[in-house]
Amino acid sequence: MRVVRVALTGTGGIGSRVAVALLERRAQLFQRFGCDVRLVAVCGSRAGIVRDDGLEAGDVTNRGGWIAGLAGVPLLEAARPDVVIDAGPSDYVSGGPGLAHLEWAVNHGAHAIMVSKSALALHGARLLATARANGCRVHASGASSAALPVVDVLRHNLAGAEVTRVEAALTGTSSFVLDEMVRSGSTLAEAIAEAQARGIAEPDPAFDLDGRDTAAKLVVIAGLAFGAWLSLDAVPRESVLSVTDEQLRAWRDAGEKAALVGVLERGAAGYDARVELRGYGAHHPFCAARGSTKALMVSAAGFGDYTLVGGASSPEATVAAVLKDVEHLLAAL
Ligand SMILES: NC(=O)C1=CN([C@@H]2O[C@H](COP(=O)(O)OP(=O)(O)OC[C@H]3O[C@@H](n4cnc5c(N)ncnc54)[C@H](OP(=O)(O)O)[C@@H]3O)[C@@H](O)[C@H]2O)C=CC1
Ligand SMILES: N[C@@H](CC=O)C(=O)O
After folding, report:
1. 145 CB less than 6 Å from ligand 2?
2. Which of the residues in the chain have pLDDT under 50?
3. How high is the ipTM of this complex?
4. Could you identify which of 143, 165, 214, 294 might form a hypothetical disulfide with 262, taking C-beta atoms 3.0 to 4.6 angstroms apart as the criterion?
5. The domain spanning residue 31 has which CATH number?
6. Which pTM was predicted?
7. Separation of 130 CA from ligand 2 center, angstroms?
8. Could you give the count of Cα atoms lying within 13 Å of 235 in the half-sphere of its Cβ?
9. Does the C-beta of 201 come closer than 6 Å to ligand 2?
């Protein structure tokens, strides 16, 4: 029987849930794909654990058996996994710890599932070129919009189509905060606190609100779906943090849904990206999106226009998206 060895780097709010969910799905994966998907290593920032015959949920949730210093690349060297799942922090200056983890994977013939975004958003072109050269697959639902399957729709359902425009609400926290302020009259601080309590905000919620999270997701989406790796710094951004009381009142009075959306447009020279604040009237499909619910509109030559509303941000939804990536990966092995 084929054994598929999985290492998970980052065991915080998302990573620890991914580990437990993967272990719970082990029998189902065996039935569906005929292989033993074995979680052999997990780590946080400073310690980790490797076990060749497979970890159990208790090894992940109780760090008593973890070894100090066995984290990151040393953990991957010790575990030699077939698949690396990275759920560590995103850092848009250094690339985050996920950069070294993804580099290790694509240079050692391992497949990768990225939940953290910064490695791909900053260095996606180089990493994907190495992955291709070494026969490694890179999935990144968690890093691109989690439960809203944007890359899947663009890459698989619209395979070969000329996609001329993508407009999408990709950051659940900014949608949630705007909704709370416009529809419920919450203050910015109250709305942010609630998004944090729901486990959907980035450690610094300014990343969600000032458009950097949406811009990073746009870069990952354009790169994975179209092979167009845009410069993150060059994506113009509007910010929820600069919305005025007058603007909030105007959206409320007009009955509009406010959203921070990412737009990709195909021009003569390739794809352009931007992040902008928009109000959607009652008849626009995005107006139905409530709270952290995401939304996608795609225009593709020959196919026409599509709208998809759903995939609200939540830790559970992100975990479900990571397991979907696992299924896609196993189906292709
Ligand atoms: N929350 C959400 O809804 C979503 C989050 N994401 C992305 O998922 C990632 C994780 O989010 P979340 O779980 O909420 O974040 P947390 O802050 O809860 O967890 C981060 C984890 O990363 C670990 N870590 C930090 N540095 C390193 C390192 N050098 N090597 C290995 N592990 C490290 C931390 O370790 P330690 O435990 O030791 O501190 C911690 O376990 C982020 O990149 C985020 O952008 C993506 C989609 C949705
Ligand atoms: N902070 C993000 C979480 C995942 O990317 C969001 O609000 O959607």
Report:
1. no
2. none
3. 0.97
4. 214
5. 3.40.50.720
6. 0.96
7. 27
8. 31
9. yes
